[in-house]
Specification:
This protein is of the alpha/beta class. The chain is built from 13 helices and 19 strands. The longest helix is centred in the C-terminal third of the chain and has 20 residues. The strands form five sheets. An eight-stranded mixed β-sheet has the order 1-10-12-11-13-16-14-15, with helices on both faces. Strands 5-4-9-6 form a four-stranded antiparallel β-sheet. It starts with a helix and ends with a strand. The chain is elongated. The site of zinc ion has 4 residues, from loops.
């Protein structure tokens, strides 16, 4: 796989300043930029559409927002950081005293130099976020404040990106990432850039499965996508929510809801093979868009590989999750890991032995030594012949290659190679499940 470090750095810098939210032009602009990498199809779902228990909200766009003190000095300016404004703030222009404005200010005493990230999607409200240091500096009892928010909330649409990669089978895996966070680098600029590079690499491969790759606003976007693509989504067995993948901290993975699903074991194997320590976060119903995809109606096994997982790092949802925190080289490193995981997952096929009554006459296919009497089982080392015999014994159209590899304690990739050879000989046939 090519090295994506340089190009990741380019897109981190270009996309970081854009004001993204659950709707709005920032999301369209982000997807249009990502379209330079792969031809993402941009889709719009209208405000007001009922999507299961939810309704797609009005579209939010913001041009400017600030607070001035009584001397006319801008003490908070959205143009310096889009995190200053609470996401989905309604338009406001008024003069307020300290007591009133305080109800609309958010800061973190525990991280006094960080601007927190806050939103108010479903309650019409407004607010500003600032560092605790600035709060002390600029907000004292004697002053009055002019508040200005030039935003609008109108009927519009919610924007998603979709890219489908067909493989030999129409059985799909889902790769989903979220695009609704403004200037936060690990959560989730890292994820949406990595996902796009992953799409670009997957197109080059001769894939067995098909891949449905989507860029959606978290929660409402994932719900809207499920509601608008219900038939396809209900056929998906597994996939990834790509998030928080390029911090300086440790790698981790959030297990899918079924701990026995191959996706979990394959992730652990890849980290093991690459000698990288891995924290394991067992499934729980909190988290990201697996909350929708793994819900009862869909039950898709979704895993996430993370490097500084959401909730777990000190700078989470603050302005310190920035381009100093995230590194392009970590995006490249994590991309390689995802690529290896998907490579294995893609090779996890189900085959059936076409000759079920008694043994296959391997000599006929040049797969057995013509000199009889010399074949002995070779202890612990699996020869190619051992693998052939095991595959013919196990491949019943139900058991997967992953399960056979586990039983034989051998590498799925090598077993896949042998199974593919038997498929070419017409002995095994692929079962599309
Ligand atoms: Zn987040």
């Amino acid at each position: 796989m090519k090295d994506y470090t340089k190009i990741a750095d380019h897109y981190l810098k270009r996309l970081y300043p854009i004001t993204r939210s659950i709707t709005g032009d920032g999301n369209r602009k982000t997807l249009r930029i990502l379209k330079e990498i792969v031809p993402i199809e941009i889709k719009e779902y209208p405000s007001g559409q009922r999507v299961y228990d939810w309704t797609i909200p009005k579209e939010w766009n913001v041009r400017d927002a600030w607070i001035k003190n009584s001397r006319g000095m801008k003490i908070i300016d959205f143009k310096n950081s889009n995190l200053h404004l609470v996401g989905y703030s309604i338009p406001v222009h008024k003069q307020l005293d300290l007591k009133t404005i305080k109800k609309h200010l958010h800061y973190l005493e525990s991280l006094p130099n960080a601007i927190p990230y806050r939103t108010s999607y479903y309650k019409e409200d407004w607010g500003f976020c600032l560092t605790y240091d600035d709060y002390h500096k600029y907000f004292d009892g004697s002053d009055s404040f002019e508040v200005f928010i030039d935003s609008d909330l109108k009927d519009g649409s919610l924007t998603v990106g979709e890219f489908l990669i067909p493989g030999k089978s129409d059985q799909e895996y889902l790769i989903s990432t979220y695009i609704c966070h403004p200037s936060l680098a690990n959560d989730n600029l890292s994820g949406l850039i990595l996902t796009t590079f992953l799409a670009k690499e997957l197109i080059k491969k001769d894939l067995n499965h098909s891949y449905r790759i989507i860029w959606v606003p978290e929660t409402i976007g994932a719900i809207s996508y499920c509601a608008n693509n219900e038939i396809a989504m209900k056929k998906i067995q597994a996939g990834f929510v790509i998030t928080c993948i390029a911090g300086p901290g440790p790698y981790g993975y959030k297990e899918s809801f079924d701990p026995k699903h191959p996706i979990n074991k394959i992730i652990e194997q890849v980290f093991d093979e690459n000698n990288i320590d891995l924290l394991k976060y067992p499934f729980d119903p909190h988290g990201s868009d697996e909350r929708q995809y793994s819900s009862q109606g869909f039950r898709i096994n979704m895993a996430s590989i993370t490097k500084d997982k959401y909730y777990e790092y000190a700078y989470y949802h603050t302005s310190l999750d920035d381009l100093d925190f995230v590194k392009a080289e970590y995006i490249n490193e994590s991309l390689n890991i995802y690529f290896k995981v998907i490579d294995k997952l893609d090779k996890n096929l189900v085959f059936a032995n076409r000759i079920q009554n008694c043994e296959v006459m391997l000599g006929k296919y040049g797969l057995y030594s013509e000199t009889g009497g010399g074949q002995l089982p070779n202890g612990d080392t699996l020869t190619e012949l051992d693998m052939i015999l095991w595959l013919l014994f196990c491949c019943d159209g139900v058991v997967s290659l992953f399960e056979i590899a586990e039983r034989l304690k051998t590498d799925l990739g090598i077993l896949y190679g042998v199974a593919s050879m038997l498929e070419k000989e017409g002995i095994l046939e692929r079962i599309h499940v």
